[in-house]
Give the backbone structure.
Amino acid sequence: MSTNGMESWAVDLKDIGAIYPFQGSEVVMVIVGLVFWIGWHVLQTRHENAEIEADMTADRTGEETRKAIDRH
Amino acid sequence: MEGNLNALTTIFTEFYYWVTIVMMFLIHVGFCMYEVGVSRRRNHLKTLMKNAMAIPLVTITFYFFGWWIYFGFPNGPGIAGGLVTAPFAEPWNPLMGTHLSGVNPGETGVTPTDAALWHRLNGVFWGAFLLFSITTASIISGSIIERARSGAFWIVAVLIGSVLWILDASWGWHPQGWMVKLWGYHDAYASGVVHAIAGGAALAFLIVLGPRIGKFKPDGTPRDIPPHNVWLVTIGLFLIFTGFWGFYAACNIPLISPATIAGQITGETWTATNIYLAPTTLSAITFNFLMSLSGGMLAGYIVSKGDPFWTFSMGLCGIISASAGNDLYHPIQAMLIGAIVPSICYKLHYFVERRFKIDDAVGAVAVHGYGGFLGVVVAGFMLWGQPSSPYEGFAHINPLGNFAGAVLMFVLGFVPTFVVCKILNSMNLLRVPKKVELEGVDFALNHAFEASVRELGTAEKAMIK
């Protein structure tokens, strides 16, 4: 049993193709990769929304905002 | 050198490693910037010197004995055979200097075979391994800032950089290493050999050293100690990423024939190989390096809720956690391993900090130690059953061999460092006094600087008519 089908290097390299594990599952891996990518945007947007919401509600008087402008 | 093709291959290989050394030096520019950025203003000069002086100290000790350890100990010795003679790596051997491949009359310790192989490659191989050594030592440096004595760190830097890591490299990162032969240990880009061992050593140092004053509230809750310059931290980490590319290249043999490998590979096709002389390509490791970095940064952003320090650090952890198998993974596998393992390491960092009151200023134990350890373990499962080596009779890659190897790496870093730190602590040589820590370790340097500025200013003002 070998995850890439290779049991030994007693071969001629010109006859060997891909050597990564679990060959044949490329399409599944690409789908998992795409889900990871899209999921990242979803999670990032949620996080940023929450942060902006917190910023909006944090300074009702405007005093902290004025200080932030002065900090520049 | 016999024949134009042999000469060309040798000179290409010499030049290739020389380039990797220059690239890897950027890791240390990055470490210096990063540590200075993290440390508070009253500590950054000593922090810089602590890290920078590890470079010359590990260099000369690696010349004296580190290089020889790599070639002398692949059998343990006593596990897969005895001590191996390696005259070309002895510091008094003519091949450890300028040499043009002939054997001078009466010269002892240099055979024509050794001379043909090592006359141009010895210095650049030595240099590449030296840069791995300095990296291993520097990993500890950031964890212990603002309270460790520089001298204590320099002793540990020599221990880890020129003895411990190169011993584990001889066991698990040498084509004939006993861990590779008997356990099928596979760690192509040094998740365990460099990072787990350094993480283990950093943890041992931190346990004996204790946290910075003010790190923990009286009830034990940790306080955040923010970096004094986030720009330096960011640029430092990006330089470390850049140098890490050179590190990856230096872990490969760029071009070699099956005849020169002298293993089981048949045919005439030349190939790049990993450190074990098993075939891979520079193309594969370029895919996998960048995909694992990306997986780590993307996951780091989410789990740290957009914290820049952890987002970048987990990019580094992503590379480290996929490094053990990045010669063989598919790029998406590298990305997912590079995302999942750092997320676990991030959680572990805060768990260990809260539970055991460990103050790791840069998260090195998590990024390098846990990341490296888990990276080796994951590779054991992912690459299960694949040949670890082109040589006959070697064990195949397997989860048990890699798990045992990961434990061995971490423990080999932890135990000797713990013992040395205990001895240094008992001699009052490990940590600066409380008053010095509160003043900042740069106190005297800062006062001397201010006094010089005042004196010069006074003198210059007196010249105004």
Observations:
- The interface with chain B takes residues 1-4, 6-16, 19-22, 26, 29-30, 32-33, 36-37, 40, 43-44, 47-48, 51 of chain A (CB under 8 Å).
- Residues 62 and 68 of chain A are 10 Å apart (CA to CA).
- Helices of chain A lie at 26-58, 63-71.
- The two ends of chain A are 63 Å apart (CA to CA).
